[in-house]
Specification:
alpha/beta; Rossmann fold; 2 domains; six-stranded parallel beta sheet; four-stranded parallel beta sheet; 15 helices; 43% helix; globular
């Protein structure tokens, strides 16, 4: 399994989903080798113990997991010194690599000493290409039945591993370039996504909404596309409970502050709510390219004393924020799934979600609105803040609904996809 991030080094739902799915798979006795570009040494030690091999380009780190993690192996790709591979020659390099002997591939991968930041920076495409080259060596050196690649960053790695091993490839679509960029797609990313889906033997999408995009926008054969909805990891929430030392209600937005997540609609709805009730505070947690614009808009609307920008929050801080939140809003313009509403409902916070989200396909006890309908959003927020009967109903039944959305159930459905290839 190829991933790009793993807790606590996450930027959104991708790392959280990988964590939950691998844990769920282990409950079904599936043995998983999980590969990431880089380990930082402070990954979650609750289930894992990290040990580095000495000064080799690719080294395996085995961890001691609890009963749920005993079948998981983590591989780190790490290196030093030489510069990045030029992404323009990636395809040519891959083709040449697999025409020559496997021994030569191993020699190339080891001697080049690729470096990885493991982050989402300006050199992201170069890291994606180098990650793919090293993936061929990993595939040759390990025994496995299935290759599973998460999101576009790892699709080239999955393709390289398939070429090296002849094993079937499953790609997992957590988001598409149309979700991230609307109609103004990055052509390079789109091409990588499409190539990955075309080369895959099976495509897993996180919602029926995403499945339709994959079929209609990328031209993928519907017979090989399957939907497996995400789930939520149970946690002991009592340890995150904190006391709110003020009387105002709290309405929360959590996610990247980008076009895809619809932060501007949340801000406009907040203004409408405050016109009716000044006893409310709005919290926007996250970072992104629309942060500065959002701050300026809040200032222009003169509600800076009622609106708080919290920045990026680690999982424990997210849970603490939910413990004092009265309403959670996810006004996404295009959301393949959306795990954060599940996390809010887990904390018994009523949620308002856009109809343009994959998670709306499986939730019954959530208020669903069109992302652009700021009047409906404001009215829904006001109702949840002022009508205790409505709020209590969503808290109680929402929590019950979430308790049945388990990663081991999602993992079972993934295994059925695997079995169709074996």
């Amino acid at each position: 399994m190829f991933g790009w991030e793993f807790p606590p080094h996450i930027t959104g739902g991708l790392g959280t989903a990988c964590y939950g799915l691998t844990k769920g798979l282990s409950k079904h006795k599936a043995e998983v080798i999980f590969v990431v570009p880089k380990l930082f040494g402070d990954e979650d030690k609750t289930y894992v113990e990290l040990t580095d091999a000495e000064k080799v380009t690719i080294f395996q780190t085995r961890k001691s997991f609890d009963e749920f993690w005993k079948n998981i192996t983590y591989l780190q790709i790490d290196s030093t010194l030489l510069p990045y591979l030029d992404p323009q020659i990636f395809e040519k390099y891959i083709q040449q690599s697999f025409k020559i002997s496997q021994e030569h591939i191993k020699e190339e991968a080891f001697e080049t000493h690729f470096t990885f930041s493991g982050k989402y920076g300006a050199d992201l495409i170069t890291e994606v290409t180098r990650y793919a080259i090293v993936a061929g060596t990993i595939a040759k050196d390990h025994e496995f039945d299935i290759i599973h690649a998460h999101d576009w960053l790892t699709y080239p790695a999955g393709i390289a591993a398939k070429q090296a091993s002849g094993k079937p490839l499953v790609v997992h679509v957590h988001a598409t370039e149309f979700d991230r960029s609307g109609e103004h797609v990055n052509q390079t990313v789109f091409d990588i996504e499409q190539k990955g889906m075309q080369e895959a033997d099976r495509v897993i999408t996180v919602s029926h909404l995403t499945k339709q995009i994959v079929i209609e926008r990328y031209g993928i054969d519907p017979s090989k596309v399957f939907t497996v909805h995400n789930a939520v990891e149970p946690v002991e929430l009592e340890e995150f409970n904190i006391t709110k030392h003020f009387d105002e209600k709290i309405v929360t937005f959590l996610g990247r502050i980008t076009f895809q997540k619809g932060p501007e609609y949340f801000i406009e709805a907040a203004k409408k709510v405050l016109q009716k009730d000044k006893n409310v505070r709005f919290v926007m947690a996250g970072t992104g390219d629309m942060l500065h614009r959002s701050i300026e808009r809040v200032a222009k609307l003169r509600m800076g004393d009622r609106f708080h920008f919290a920045g990026f929050l680690k999982p424990e801080m997210v849970n603490k924020l939910f413990s004092i939140s009265d309403v959670y809003v996810m006004p996404s313009v295009s959301e393949p799934f959306g795990i954060s509403p599940l996390e809010a409902m887990r904390s018994q916070v009523p949620v308002i979600i856009s109809k343009q989200s994959g998670v709306s396909e499986i939730l019954n006890h959530a208020i669903k609105i069109d992302f652009w309908d700021i009047d409906a959003m404001a009215d829904s927020i006001h109702a949840l803040l002022h009508y205790d009967g409505i709020s209590k109903m969503f808290k109680t039944y929402g929590k019950t609904e979430i308790d049945h959305l388990k990663w081991e159930n999602a993992a079972y459905n993934v295994i059925q996809v695997y079995n169709s290839l074996l």
